[in-house]
Amino acid sequence: MSALDTAPAASVATADQGHKRRSFDIGGAILTLVTVIFAVLWAFPIYWGVITSLKPESQVISRTVEFLPRTWTIDAYWHVLVNTMIGRWYINSLVTSVSVTVLTLIISATTAYALSQLRFPGRTVIWYLILASFMVPIAALIVNHFILMAQFGLINNWLGVILPQLIHPVVIIVYKNFFDSVPKEYREAAKMDSASEWRIFSRIYVPMNWGVTTALAIVTFIGAWNNFLWPFLAVSRTEMMNVAVGITQVNDAFGVQYARELAAAILAALVVAILYLIFQRRVTQAIMLSAGVKG
Amino acid sequence: MIRNHRREVVAAYLFILPFVLSYGVLFFWPTLQMIYLSFTDAPLIGPGQWIGLENYIEMFDDRRFWTAVRNTSYFVALTVIPNTLIGLAIAMMVSRLKGWQQSVILAMFFLPYILPVSVVYRIWNWMFNVQFGIMQYPLTWIFGEPTPVFRVQWMFMPTVAFVTIWWTCGFNILLFLAGLRSIPSDIYEAAALDNANRWTIFRRITWPLIWPVTALVLTIQLILQLKIFDQVYLFVQGGRPDPSMVMVQYIYNMAFQRNEGGYAAAIAVALFAIVIVFSVLQFQLLRSRGEK
Questions:
Q1: Spatial distance between the Cα atoms of B196 and B145, rounded to a whole number of angstroms
Q2: A229 and A108, same domain (yes or no)
Q3: Which residues of chain A have a CB within 8 Å of the CB of B180?
Q4: Per-residue pLDDT reduced to its tens digit, A70-99
Q5: Which of B5, B63, B175, B272 has the fewest CB atoms within 10 Å distance of its CB?
Q6: Least confident interval from A92-101, B150-159, B275-284
Q7: What are the pLDDT digits (tens) for A145-204?
């Protein structure tokens, strides 16, 4: 890791020398220009969605392309906020996504600690079960998840949305890797003080890996917030939907009102988009981590 | 010493208790139930009769099942390799930039990835709108008239694939960026001393050294795209779902719309088997990467 501190300095130095040799790097400049144009085109649909949602409906359906609204308005947003259950959907999304995140992290961290630090009969079997479940497509289980949740009476219920989303073997695997790399001395010292396993776990292993926990929390939360298939199946009552599912209902209520449809979509994306823009580096790191790549 | 070990075992079981309960009830049990259900004629909710392999035999003669398999494979073919190559290309463009410029450009490429699928659907449905969509300008130029891309059969899957690549490419870009950063810069410096051009540097250095990441991205993509449902389901709304039906959608269709739980479970088992075959490949790949 210490190499990281010196490496950029070295590359800056060589880049400077390179500039002196070649007076002007035309190929490089063109590449940069292409990159910028491509990035603008790539982000354009999002910009276009936002801009459209800020236009009055009459200008939305104008035949000329207007990259900025002639009249700015948040009417569409007011309409969505007042006339749909989006507030309720937001609460549903928040409650279910936070619960999925917290429960997944608790289940995964405790399991990973046991697998990483404790010897007990059945340890290898459980480890292989986890590696195997890593490969199973949860999407194939929708039928039986539905049957199970119906048996528990949890259809159209927060718990019914939450429970089937708790299966994230990757989180266990990532935690185990990090717990494995905590130096054994800490544990031995704590043992000498006859600390309980729970104390060692909660006072040493968890605090030492806060970075991993934050990263995994971000990824799990975004995943749960954006999840469509299961919340879509587990809920049929409009007031129990989460935002990602709820906004697909908006058109039925209004007929075709493009600004309103898009305003509902922008509102649905807002929380995660803002979270991403604030914690950009953390999110990037977190996603690399969850794919098994240390960024 | 033995007392100590017993305490450790008890502690361990307490630690794995949440796992055993949650994975047992929500994962292993439904998996076994799915396999059992596939041998019965049960409706979605309620008991059924054991009918042996009948569902599977029916499946092999079911034209709609094979359409779903074909459409899923077509979608996989349209997304996996293009998404990987575009991801690599963008990552190489982004990695040339430094500091805040890199952050801004990366954010522009990555932002779609964090959108819920229904938001992606809303945005692109508007972009491609037949009357007012901005994409009708290039489409009219190509086809001579405004084109409802989600209603024209042969355009449906490629357009959904295009939108999917736009939506998910950010993830691939990140993995490739991490891979590009781990290539030691002195290799490039040595190449620069030899006056190697960009193409030679890419072919001789970047491509071979990034290959493990490319293989990883390819397999992740493959498994991910086999499970396609959301986009196809959303974009086909208002049209005929049958011709563009994909596997998960067929499971959904059979179980939730036709109330044939047993048959839906049989299709799920088939999907399960396909994904597991590819996952085992991915796992081998990851492991061989880990050992290096």
A1: 47
A2: yes
A3: none
A4: 889 998 899 889 988 999 999 999 999 999
A5: B63
A6: B275-284
A7: 999 999 999 999 999 999 999 999 989 999 999 999 999 899 889 988 888 999 999 999
Q: Give me the total of CB pairs closer than 8 Å, taking one residue from chain A and one from chain B.
A: 279
Same domain, A90 and A227: yes
Residue of B nearest to A270 (CA): B115
Q: Is B111 on the interface with A (CB under 8 A)?
A: yes
- The structural domains of chain B, ordered by start, are 56-291 (1.10.3720.10)
Alpha-carbon torsion (B82, B88, B89, B91), positive or negative = positive
| Two structure tokens written together for B3 | 């007392």
pLDDT one-digit tens code per residue, A200-259? 999 999 999 998 899 899 889 999 999 999 999 999 999 999 999 999 887 655 567 888
Question: Are both A90 and A136 inside the same structural domain?
Answer: yes
B171 with A291: Cβ contact below 8 A: yes
Tally of structural domains, chain A: 2
* CA distances, B276 to each of A140, A174, B270 (Å): 11, 21, 10
Of B9, B96, B256, nearest to A120 by CB-CB distance is B9
Cβ separation of A244 and B252 shorter than 8 Å?
A: no
State how far the Cα of B146 lies from the Cα of B133, in Å rounded to an integer. Answer: 9
Q: What is the pLDDT of residue A2?
A: 35
pLDDT score, position A19: 46
Q: Is A230 within a domain?
A: yes
A63 assigned to some structural domain: no
Give the structural domain span for A28.
3-53
B43-69 burial, b at 16+ Cβ within 10 Å, e below that, comes to ebeeebeeeeebbeeebeebeebebbb
Tell how many helices (H) and how many strands (E) occur in chain A: 18, 0
- Give B-chain residues touching A222 at CB under 8 angstroms: 114
- Asked if residue A183 and residue A284 are part of one domain, the reply reads yes
The answer to whether position A174 is within a domain reads yes
Shared domain check, A119 and A189:
yes
Residue, of B251 and B46, whose pLDDT is higher: B251
A49 with A93, same domain: the answer is no
For residue B2, what pLDDT band results from cuts at 50, 70 and 90? low
Contacts of A262 in chain B (CB under 8 A): 122-123, 126
Is A244's CB within 8 Å of B280's CB? no
Mean pLDDT of B5-27: 93
| CB nearest to B30's CB, from A45, A52, A144 | A144
Q: How far apart are CA A49 and CA B119, in angstroms?
A: 10
Amino acid at A252: D
- φ, ψ for residue B40 (rounded to 5)? -125, 170
The answer to whether the Cβ–Cβ distance between B18 and A222 falls below 8 Å is no
Contact at 8 Å (CB) between B96 and A32?
yes
Segment B164-223, tens digit of pLDDT: 999 999 999 999 998 898 888 888 888 888 888 888 888 988 998 898 888 888 888 888
Best of B15, B29, B104, B109 to substitute, by most chain A Cβ atoms within 10 angstroms, is B15
